[in-house]
Design brief:
globular; five-stranded antiparallel β-sheet; 33 strands; four-stranded antiparallel β-sheet; 0% helix; mainly beta; 370 residues
Amino acid sequence: MVIFNTYGLRGYVAMDINDGSIIWDNRGMTTASHLSSRPMQVGDKFYFIKGSRFFAMDLNNGNTLENFLWPPNNEWLNSRISHFEGTLYMTLKEYTKPTFAELVSTKVDDLSYSNWTRFLRTTPSENDGYKPSYFAPTVYMKENEEKLLIFARGFYKNIDDSYYNFQAYNLNTQELEWSTEDSFMNSFAQPKIDGDRVYTHTDDKIYCLNANTGETIWDYDISTTGFNIVLSTIAVGLVLHEDVLLGIGKNDKNICLDKFTGQVRWRYTFDDQKDLDRQADSSQPETPCIYKDKIYYINGSGGITSVDIYNGGAYKQYYMPLYSYYAAFDTTLFEKKFGSFGSGGMTISEDGVLFTSDEFRFLAFKIPDE
């Protein structure tokens, strides 16, 4: 089955992949405005944060297995959840006027509040008055099987006075393993771990770090080399595939680097038709859609763009037949593009069926053979 995350409609819908019949539908399961756009799947369960509530859901029937309000009423769990070997990791902060940052974890087989572990709490007084934040924890296992929790840290005073860095916390020894230099970054992205390397990007550079030491193996400047690709932390961003690291731009540029050396394999600027048709828009960064060495993503026009990973130029566009920018440029519905793809993201099956949705329909189509 395929599960659609209809976060604007407050629920999920599971459908048979062959005929589209509904297996279960729990829309209306909650009363707040949006579900998390990034549920964490572990086996046959979803885990997600919505508002200040933590949910666990059975994917076999859509039933809620766990639903509790985080007890301290001014603390806020971040919606981005990481999982490693039966443990969930996420970040915690105050919601209204953040005065601390903290990491939390829990075993998936005991989600009661009393079983949650808090660690690495920090406050402005410990950071020269800067308000701290933690982002995007990811687990890396060393050769000696010790586990490092690698995460970004932000420190903020005002819009002109802030900085970021990365740290690794040893979950076995409960000590900091390494930290990158302060001001190492001017923004952050979810770290991607491949072997003993960590890949991430800022507004200015793509970085490859040694996961054991935090040392920079290579970096590539994306802002001053004349190419000026814009990578987003909420769209496709960086994608690892075999021996390459692909950057899908929020503007009309894509780039492909050798993941071991950082050397450019190719870089490509779309310079025809509309820029929006090339821009990565709402595709989720954690689940890149790759089929036969092509990556598929939602573009800024609400269509789907496909790009060949190994040459960058063999692209195609897919639009709704009646509601593309070319057929119905001024057709709108409640000030939104009518019939655009991707309001609930997309995924591709092993046999090349692409599942997505527009504002009012669930959709599946076979990717054409080329």
